[in-house]
Structure prediction request, 406 residues.
Amino acid sequence: MQFRTHSDNNDTTTNKQDQPASTAPPEENAKRIIVQTGDRQVTTLILDSDAHRIITTFDDETVLVYSALTGALLSTLTGHQGGVWASSLHKNTLVTASTDRTIRVWDLLTGICTHVFVAHTSTVRSAQIVLPINVNRHNPGQPPKYEPEFPIIVAGSRDNTVSVWRLPIEELNGDLAVTKRDNWLLRRLTGHTDAIRAIAGEGNLVASAGYDHVARIWNSFTGELIHTLVGHEQKLYQVVLDTEHRQCITSGMDAIIRIWSLDTGASLHVLTGHTALVGLLQLNAGLMVSASADGTAQVWDPITAERLHIIGNHPLGQGNSILATQHDGEKLVIGFDGAVQTWDIRTGELLHETKDVGTVWQLAFDRRRRVVAFNLPEQGSYRTHNQSCLEILDYGVAVGSQLSGH
Prediction:
């Protein structure tokens, strides 16, 4: 059976190098929709380009699905008993993970929670759907070999463990259908001595990054620990897999980025230049972007470890943390507390800046839209008491702003 992969914009570890670069016109020409989302923090945001919907999770157990076309609320997914801090999407199947220690699987066509997975004893902080990929795709002449054998979920918890689950779907005429399998938990991966902050999965490989200053590489099929990556001096916050070049990339509180060999576990490069927590990493189209609490984003060649650009121009001055970022190989969008900026990632030129925002929680964009989740500033045009909002910029239509809510 062959599986077709879908990359969601909330997952920085998914390979997106085959996606076309953005050709959207300037933000000033876009239709602007403001959606009020209530007095709460947006914890994750997925822009589903195929289905024209926006999936948001919050720190108060809420999961909301909006139309990317109109901003209308499509569905409210209820069931979690605590803040939802991780989400991953494949077609109409959504996976969420929460401080209530559970992982939930949702059918977005019906809004129904089809499965609740309970295995962890503390917050599940990260979760990813891992789809089968042809691991021989970079080896011409080799027959296709798909790993993992079927879609799985990998999740990392503050209880120091990684869980691996079978995703309860089967591919049937291109659609997803709930199966009747009862035993979904495949294995628990143990070895970390502190909370797991981030995970990344591709093929049968899973990388976990922990507050114990260590990253680990596992085989999700066998449960084997392949490498323990030791070198960071403080808590890790991000991990990215680059299986095409047989590399793993990590970052954290020590302001250092390390590139490791997946074959040997050796440290290949140590990237310096940030002066505070490096909490965001994204690899796409041959470029890696790191974003830091020091207020800068840095663009790197992950093969040579050369730094190509240092990007940081916050209107409130240096040191204002970058809270969200995404790039497509040509355009880089970064969100601060008080501004959203669009940069040319190849030249380092600032293309556009929006200042009429408060704290930026999350952002995502595709060829047609940019979506930003933020708190409105004290003097914002749509200010209500501590109001959190989504701003949808639709580059396909050039009209004025409109206000929506639920």
Summary: The domain at 79-272 is CATH 2.130.10.10 (Methylamine Dehydrogenase; Chain H).
